[in-house]
Specification:
- This protein is an alpha+beta fold and about 230 residues long.
- Helix content is about 55%, strand content about 15%.
- It folds into 2 domains: about 130 residues; about 90 residues, no CATH class.
- The two termini are about 40 Å apart.
């Protein structure tokens, strides 16, 4: 439980340099903490530590990857690989051992418990690698995005900001050479972000440049963040 509270506090603190050493130490401290929990038989504490930390981190990553930023994706991937997954694995093993050992009341099935621990442990890495929250949010928003893109392409008077699906858009652009329609989430000149519906030629990245983040979402749509 104390690891959950400490991690949550560190993730929201404004002092990055203060929290970084502790976060880096978590994968090394977790095995000793988990061994202590198992030796003491603290099943509830181990379960709360694993499920509480796992649900919190996965929810945080799901929100973050709904609006992915290419500048932070490599750091998120490394953090998941070397900090999050080892820490969750340690607490997950402790929780599973205490829940499935002889005399546990109630005693959980080993296969089912092991599968749930594995799924919750590797999910952060899957989230950052596949960006499934972005893809899911796009599927939910796609009818509204198509409608808004049609209005922009037809030259209709569209007022911004406005919401389409789960996203808020602050502007739009059309690339005259390709016919690509861009719906802007962030118009920052140094690196705009938005959704691009490819024109009939399905060519080029315009109105964005070809550099930066590009995620093919299907149905002629891409999520782009210009470098």
């Amino acid at each position: 439980m104390f690891v959950v509270a400490a991690t949550a506090g560190l993730l929201v603190t404004s002092s990055v340099w203060l929290s970084l050493p502790v976060l880096l130490a978590l994968p090394f401290v977790a095995p000793f903490a988990c061994r202590w929990l198992v030796s003491r038989g603290y099943r509830r504490t181990a379960a709360v530590g694993f499920w509480g930390l796992g649900v919190f981190i996965n929810a945080l990553l799901a929100v973050t990857c709904t609006y992915p930023d290419y500048m932070f994706l490599p750091a998120l991937y490394l953090a998941c690989l070397f900090i999050v997954v080892p820490t969750l694995a340690g607490f997950g093993v402790a929780s599973a051992m205490l829940a499935t050992r002889d005399g546990a009341v109630p005693r959980r099935a080993r296969a089912k418990t092991g599968l749930s621990v594995f799924a919750l442990t590797v999910l952060p890495l899957v989230t950052v690698t596949t960006l499934w929250p972005l893809r899911l949010a796009f599927l939910v928003s796609r009818p509204s995005l198509d409608l808004l893109a049609n209005q922009v392409a037809a030259g209709q008077n569209v007022t911004f900001p406005q919401r389409a699906g789960v996203y808020w858009f602050v502007g739009s652009m059309i690339d005259p050479s390709s016919g690509n329609v861009s719906l802007m989430i962030d118009p920052n000149p140094g690196g705009p972000t938005g959704f691009v519906r490819m024109g009939p030629q399905r060519d080029g990245a315009g109105p964005f440049s070809a550099s930066g983040l590009g995620v093919d979402l299907g149905w002629g749509w891409e999520y782009r963040q210009e470098d």
